[in-house]
Each structure stands twice: as structure tokens, then as C-alpha cells.
Design goal:
The chain is of the alpha/beta class and 301 residues long. It has one domain: Alpha/Beta hydrolase fold, catalytic domain (Rossmann fold, 3-Layer(aba) Sandwich). 41% of the residues lie in helices and 17% in strands. It has nine helices and eight strands. It has an eight-stranded mixed sheet, with helices on both faces. Helix 3 crosses helix 9 and helix 4 crosses helix 5. The radius of gyration is 17 Å and the shape is globular. The two termini are 31 Å apart.
Length: 301
């Protein structure tokens, strides 16, 4: 059963999302509002270190503390519909995952649509990954993680690497992944009035901004249409009331059919990327489970 806190936090999110009304605003204005809000209200856990870095022109941040193990890294890809969000919006979540996993996180700001549509985000992800390999990190010591569009990006970038016969990351962590930009799943309709964050019209609009002239069912845009054979283990979390629930379910089903080791859990009463709400008991439990999975993959005590 969802916590009492979740009831009040969900109501607050609902009011805030309606007031923000992203689809009616200029995209640059919306980005500014979202980032400003995040800087004001997203608190970094104590003793977390943030070290900015430029990697082939891409801004990124190393997030660590004095207990993170050396030689292992989570490459975290933020969500935001491929059009919104930044390190500011996801630094706190990435830091909490870092603490639970015991390894440092690299959080890049990949290029955003509509200025940089598909495949810009994939290209930047692969650029960062190859840079990590060149820095001496083994592919077995790198995990891709991300939420929403970032969750879809973890899968899409892995598919490109697989098709180019490059070494793959050790695992994929997908939080409320956006992997079906055609919006074909039944949760888009069933949960349209329940999810406090996402609305179908905004999701469809941002899908088109990202895809531009490409078809939405392109398997590198919507990975549920891909052959997932050969992918590394997947850890997937989704909320029972989010409109992207079907995306997560379809991804888990297709991955299992392809012989991929899948760890999938639906959280009762949770909405899209609830893990980002640091005051929510379910967010703390979810990040703890993410950390446990990563520790198991990396064999970190």
C-alpha cells in the first residue's frame, strides 16, 4: 500500500504540473523554469562531491563521496523527453543512487531536441562511453542507468554498440523507461488521469520533436521494436499509475523473450519517476533496491 506521504506529494505534483503547463510555453522558457526549480528544491546528500568535466565538448559531472569504489562507474542518463532537464534536475537522484551503489556516477548533459533531434542523444552517450573505455574503465565495470527518456536511451545506445560489435556495459538500469514513442500501450489511456506528472499530449509532442523526420517505430527511437538479443541484464522499475507502465512491461517481456536476464518490479501507487522525490519513502526504498542490484553486478560489498 502506498505511504501516506505519497498521497500529499502526488497532489502537490499534480498542482505544480498543471500550473507549469509545459505544452503552452516556449521550450527554452520551460527548461529555465524546470532547472531553476530543481536548483532551489533538489538537495544534494551530505558529503557528496560534484566535479564538473567537459568530455569532447559535452558537459558532465562526476558525482562521488569518500566511500565510492574506484574503477567502477554508473553512466547516468537523465530523463526529460529528450527535450528537457539537465544535471541540475537529476544531480540529487544520481547522488542518492551513488550512495546506495557505492560507486561513482558520471552524469552527462547530452544534446536535446528539437535543436538536436535523433540520433544526437545516442551519439553523445556513445561518445561518453568510449571516453570511459579510453580512460581505462572495463566495459564490465560500467553500468548504464537512466530514467524516462534516459531509460530508453540506455537501451538504444546499447543496441547501437551491439550492432557495431563493441563491448557492452555490464547492465542496464531503467527507471520508468520511455521505450515506445508510438504510445501504443494501454497504460497511456488507463493511467492518463492518474499520473500526476505526465500527460499523453505532451508525451506525443516531445516524441515528435525527438524523432523529427524519422518514424516513431524506428527501433533506436522506440527500443521495444528492436531485437534485444545479446543485451546485458536489465533492472526495470515502473509505477502502477504512470502512463509509461506499458513501456516498462513491454520492454521486460521482449527482453525476457530474447533471453535477457530481467529484474522488473511495478511499484503500487507510484507515478512516473517517483524515485526523484527525495522526501518520499518509496523513493528511498527504490533507490536502495537499485543500489543492491548494482552492487551485485559489480560485486561491491
Amino acid at each position: 500500500m502506498p505511504s501516506v506521504s505519497s498521497y500529499f506529494i502526488k497532489k502537490g505534483i499534480n498542482v505544480g504540473a498543471k500550473k507549469l503547463n509545459l505544452e503552452e510555453k516556449d521550450i527554452n522558457e520551460s527548461r529555465k523554469i524546470i532547472d531553476t526549480f530543481a536548483r532551489k528544491f533538489s538537495k544534494l546528500p551530505k558529503n557528496s562531491n560534484v566535479d564538473p568535466i567537459k568530455i569532447n565538448g559535452i558537459y558532465a559531472e562526476w558525482i562521488s563521496n569518500n566511500q565510492t569504489k574506484e574503477g567502477k562507474v554508473i553512466l547516468y542518463l537523465h530523463g526529460g523527453g529528450y527535450s528537457y532537464c539537465s544535471a541540475d534536475t537529476h544531480r540529487s537522484l544520481a547522488a542518492r543512487i551513488m550512495i546506495e551503489a557505492g560507486v561513482k556516477v558520471l552524469l552527462p548533459e547530452y544534446r536535446l531536441a528539437p535543436e538536436h533531434p535523433f540520433p544526437a542523444a545516442i551519439e553523445d552517450t556513445i561518445t561518453i562511453y568510449r571516453w570511459l573505455l579510453n580512460q581505462g574503465y572495463s566495459s564490465s565495470n560500467i553500468i548504464f542507468a537512466g530514467d524516462s527518456a534516459g531509460g530508453g536511451l540506455t537501451v538504444a545506445a546499447t543496441l547501437v554498440l551491439r550492432d557495431q560489435y563493441e563491448p557492452l556495459p555490464a547492465a542496464l538500469v531503467c527507471l520508468s523507461p520511455w521505450v515506445d514513442l508510438t504510445s501504443s500501450g494501454d497504460s497511456y489511456r488507463k493511467n492518463s488521469e492518474k499520473d500526476p506528472y505526465l500527460r499523453c499530449d505532451l508525451v506525443q509532442k516531445t516524441a515528435q520533436l525527438y524523432a523529427a523526420d524519422e518514424s516513431l517505430d524506428n527501433c533506436f527511437i522506440s527500443p521495444i521494436f528492436a531485437d534485444l538479443c545479446g543485451c546485458p541484464p536489465m533492472f526495470i522499475q515502473a509505477g502502477s499509475i504512470e502512463i509509461l507502465l506499458s513501456d516498462a512491461q513491454l520492454l521486460a517481456d521482449k527482453a525476457r523473450q530474447a533471453g535477457v536476464d530481467v529484474h522488473f518490479k511495478v511499484w503500487d501507487g507510484m507515478w512516473h519517476v517517483w524515485q526523484i522525490s527525495n522526501r518520499l519513502p518509496e523513493a528511498k526504498k527504490a533507490t536502495r533496491e537499485i543500489g543492491q542490484f548494482i552492487r551485485k553486478i559489480f560485486k561491491v560489498n
